[in-house]
Amino acid sequence: YSLTLLIVSCSGFNQVMKSDDFELKRTYANDFFMASNWDRAAALYEQIYQRYSQGPIGEEAYFRLGMSYYNMKDFYLAEYYFKNFATRFFFSNQAEEAKFLSAMCAVKNVPRKSLDQAETYQALQSLQEFVNQYPNSSLVDSCNRVMDRLNLQLEDKAWDNAYIYYHMEQYRGAAAAMDIFIEDFPSTKRKEEAMFIAARSSNFIAENSIESKKFERYELLLQRCVTFAELFPSSRHSDEVMNIRRKAERYISLNRQD
User: Fold this and answer.
1) Coil, strand, or helix at residue 252?
2) Closest to 241 in 3D by CA, of 207, 209, 195
3) Please, are residues 188 and 152 in contact by the beta-carbon 8 Å criterion?
4) How many CB atoms lie under 10 A from the CB of residue 149?
5) DSSP states of 159-181 as a string?
6) Among 69, 114, 170, 193, which one is most buried in terms of CB atoms within 10 A?
7) pLDDT 10s digits, 91-104
């Protein structure tokens, strides 16, 4: 922590900011950066980049501007600078790192599961862009692990949203939501439970339908039960699904119009 930095940090920072001596600005910006005085480093690097928008000085200033905001945990601004750096300085040795850090900033801005997940989708897109652009990077494995975690968060959110219909006994909504859940997350470990809830919900719908709708709804219910039995022959729900299936088959047999 240099003596000049100590002095300017106490009294002369505004003078450096107002100075036309960009070498002086750069010296202090680098000193502030090395001393983790991120806000003052960022203020000076912004001026330096505006003066030297091209070349190695501008490249250094712009990258460190992003790093300063990243270390201040202002991930929105950090993402902005890293993303732009990767575009403006495409051939830089730090372009790959900037692209990765841009994606990590997007990940840092991911909200809790209970909130809207738009930013989670944006983070996934940023991570995928990095993997596509740098498929041989040593950072790809890290990206894939983070994407797995974010996809699981989206799955948890979608499951909660679908299950609430069933919990509230809104069976038409529950059956439709579980179908969408399975379509959106075909590899989910909850597929068996989702299909069971959809079948159970369809049973309630068929039972309580007006007579003119019952036949087609029991046909749909029967198809759900058949598919469930084929996919999960040893399910803990097998007995209940079989009982529902027999009831559907009985109704269809008694009401079939040839």
Assistant:
1) helix
2) 195
3) no
4) 11
5) HHHHHHHHHTT-HHHHHHHHHHH
6) 69
7) 999 999 999 999 99
